[in-house]
C-alpha cells in the first residue's frame, strides 16, 4: 500500500512538529517554506530524513498531496492555497492533524485578547495535580508533544487562523475569552467572519463538552443566541450573578458547577487589572471542572508570574515604572493596559495597523496619558487621532530613541508604557523582538 503524502507549508515550530508526528504515523512527508527555515529546525528535518525545501513552494511537489498542513501565518487567499482547495485537497492546521493521534482531554482556549495569559494560567493551575502539556500558539508544538510525551491533558492556545483549518477537532473544554475586531485584514474586513472563526472551537462539541465564555461580551452572547451550540455553557461575569459558571461578588470569585461552589478571594491575585480577574475566572472554572483542589487553585492564582511582554514590569528608574506590553497587538489589548494604569503615563504606541479604530481609547488617553511617542513607519493615523489630546506627541522609528525620549518626559511617580495596539512587522521581527528591544533600552538608560 502506498503511503499517504503529507505536505507541510511552513517550516517553523508547528510545521516541523507535524512533520515528525506525520513520519512516525507512516506518512510520506514533505516540508516546503517560502522563506528560510531556521537552522535548528533544518537540523531536525535532516536528522529525521524528512524531505524539505526553502525559498520556494514547488507546485509539482505540493499539488500531489493527500493532505496539507499549513502554517497559520499563510492566508487562505494566496494562489497556492486556492489551487489546493480547488483540487479538493484538505488544507488543515496542526491542531486538526495532531488531535487525531491523542486520546487526551483537550482544553482549547481562544479569544482576541487574554488567550496566552489564560492558557498559561490554566496550565499553571492544573500542573500541580495532573499530567498536562501547554501547546498550540505557544511553547513546543502540539504534534511534537504528542509524539514525545503524550500527556493525559493539553491546554491549547488557539488562534482564529488555526481554527480556520479545523474540520473534526473537538476540545472537551472550550474557552472564549472575548471577541473584538482584530486581524480583519484576513477576514475581508468583515467582523462577522472573524467571530464565526472563533466559534469554530465549539462547532464539534457535544452535550458532554463545556464552553466557558465571557458573559459580559455582547459579541459572544449575541452570537450564541443566534447560533446555539451543543455544549454545556459555563459563563463568567464581573457584573451579574451566574448560576452555573463564575462571577465576581464584591472581592470574591464564586464558581458554581452542578451545585458545587468554590469561592476565591481576589485580594491576593498576582495579576492586576479587571481583565485579569476574567482570565482568572476562566482558568479557575477549568480547574474546578477538572476537580483541582480549592487550595491548589488559590495558591496557584497567588503565585502566577504572568506572561512575558504582557504588562510586564521591567524596572523602576528615578521612581518611574517602565512597563512592557509589547504583546498588545490590537486596540482592545491596549484598552486593558491603559485601563490598569494608576499614574500619569507616557505611552509608546504604533506599528503595523490592522484597520484599527482608536475611539475606545480616547477616555483613557484624556484621563491618564501625558505624552505619546509614535513608534512606526507610518504614524499619520495616530497623529490624527491623538494629536489634539496630549501636549506632547513625537514620532520615531527607533526603540532606543523612543525610550530616551520617554525618560526625558517622565517625572517621579509616572509610568512609561509600551503598548503598541499594532502589529510589529514594520520595524521588528515580531512582538517578542519589540518587547526585548524595549527592555534592553530601559536597562541601558
TrEMBL record:
It comes from the Bacteria. InterPro entries: Mur-like_cat_sf, Mur_ligase_C, Mur_ligase_C_dom_sf, Mur_ligase_cen, MurD. It holds the Pfam family Mur_ligase_M. It is found in: Cytoplasm. Residues 109-287 form the Mur ligase central domain. GO terms for biological process: cell division; cell wall organization; peptidoglycan biosynthetic process; regulation of cell shape. Cell wall formation. Catalyzes the addition of glutamate to the nucleotide precursor UDP-N-acetylmuramoyl-L-alanine (UMA). It catalyses: UDP-N-acetyl-alpha-D-muramoyl-L-alanine + D-glutamate + ATP = UDP-N-acetyl-alpha-D-muramoyl-L-alanyl-D-glutamate + ADP + phosphate + H(+). Its EC number is 6.3.2.9. HAMAP family: MurD. ATP binds at residues 111-117. This is UDP-N-acetylmuramoylalanine--D-glutamate ligase. GO terms for cellular component: cytoplasm. It is an enzyme of class 6 (ligase). GO terms for molecular function: ATP binding; UDP-N-acetylmuramoylalanine-D-glutamate ligase activity. Belongs to the MurCDEF family. The gene is murD. Residues 309-422 form the Mur ligase C-terminal domain. Keywords: ATP-binding, Cell cycle, Cell division, Cell shape, Cell wall biogenesis/degradation, Cytoplasm, Ligase, Nucleotide-binding, Peptidoglycan synthesis. Pathway: Cell wall biogenesis; peptidoglycan biosynthesis. NCBIfam families: murD.
Amino acid at each position: 500500500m502506498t503511503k499517504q503524502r503529507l505536505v507541510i507549508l511552513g517550516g517553523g515550530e508547528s510545521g516541523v512538529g507535524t512533520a515528525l508526528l506525520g513520519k512516525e504515523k507512516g506518512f510520506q512527508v514533505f516540508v516546503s517554506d517560502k522563506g528560510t527555515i531556521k537552522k535548528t529546525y533544518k537540523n531536525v528535518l535532516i536528522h529525521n530524513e524528512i524531505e524539505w525545501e526553502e525559498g520556494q513552494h514547488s507546485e509539482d511537489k505540493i499539488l500531489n498531496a493527500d493532505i496539507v498542513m499549513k502554517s497559520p501565518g499563510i492566508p487562505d487567499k494566496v494562489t497556492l492555497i486556492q489551487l489546493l482547495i480547488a483540487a479538493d485537497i484538505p488544507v488543515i492546521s496542526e491542531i486538526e492533524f495532531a488531535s487525531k493521534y491523542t486520546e487526551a482531554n483537550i482544553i482549547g482556549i481562544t479569544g482576541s485578547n487574554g488567550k496566552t495569559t489564560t492558557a498559561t494560567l490554566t496550565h499553571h493551575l492544573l500542573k500541580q495535580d495532573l499530567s498536562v502539556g501547554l501547546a498550540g500558539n505557544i511553547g513546543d508544538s502540539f504534534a511534537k508533544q504528542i509524539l514525545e510525551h503524550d500527556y493525559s491533558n493539553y491546554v491549547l492556545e488557539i488562534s482564529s487562523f488555526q481554527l480556520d483549518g479545523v474540520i473534526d477537532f473537538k476540545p472537551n473544554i472550550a474557552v472564549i475569552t472575548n471577541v473584538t475586531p482584530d486581524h480583519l485584514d484576513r477576514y475581508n474586513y468583515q467582523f462577522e467572519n472573524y467571530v464565526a472563526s472563533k466559534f469554530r472551537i465549539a462547532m464539534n462539541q457535544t452535550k458532554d463538552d463545556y464552553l466557558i465564555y465571557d458573559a459580559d461580551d455582547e459579541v459572544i452572547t449575541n452570537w450564541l443566541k443566534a447560533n446555539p451550540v451543543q455544549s454545556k455553557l459555563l459563563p463568567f461575569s464581573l457584573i451579574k450573578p451566574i448560576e452555573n459558571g463564575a462571577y465576581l461578588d464584591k472581592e470574591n470569585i464564586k464558581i458554581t458547577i452542578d451545585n458545587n461552589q468554590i469561592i476565591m478571594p481576589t485580594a491576593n491575585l498576582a495579576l492586576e487589572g479587571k481583565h485579569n480577574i476574567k482570565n482568572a475566572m476562566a482558568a479557575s472554572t477549568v480547574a474546578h471542572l477538572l476537580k483541582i483542589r480549592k487550595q491548589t487553585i488559590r495558591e496557584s492564582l497567588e503565585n502566577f508570574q504572568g506572561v512575558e511582554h504582557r504588562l510586564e514590569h521591567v524596572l523602576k528608574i528615578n521612581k518611574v515604572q517602565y512597563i512592557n506590553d509589547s504583546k498588545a497587538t490590537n486596540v482592545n489589548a491596549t484598552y486593558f493596559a491603559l485601563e490598569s494604569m494608576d499614574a500619569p503615563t507616557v505611552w509608546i504606541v504604533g506599528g503595523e495597523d490592522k484597520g484599527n479604530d482608536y475611539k475606545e481609547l480616547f477616555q483613557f488617553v484624556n484621563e491618564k496619558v501625558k505624552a505619546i511617542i509614535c513608534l512606526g513607519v507610518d504614524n499619520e493615523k495616530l497623529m490624527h487621532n491623538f494629536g489634539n489630546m496630549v501636549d506632547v506627541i513625537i514620532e520615531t522609528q527607533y526603540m532606543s530613541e523612543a525610550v530616551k525620549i520617554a525618560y526625558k518626559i517622565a517625572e517621579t511617580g509616572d509610568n512609561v508604557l509600551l503598548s503598541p495596539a499594532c502589529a510589529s512587522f514594520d520595524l521588528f521581527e515580531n512582538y517578542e523582538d519589540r518587547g526585548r528591544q524595549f527592555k534592553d533600552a530601559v536597562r541601558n538608560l
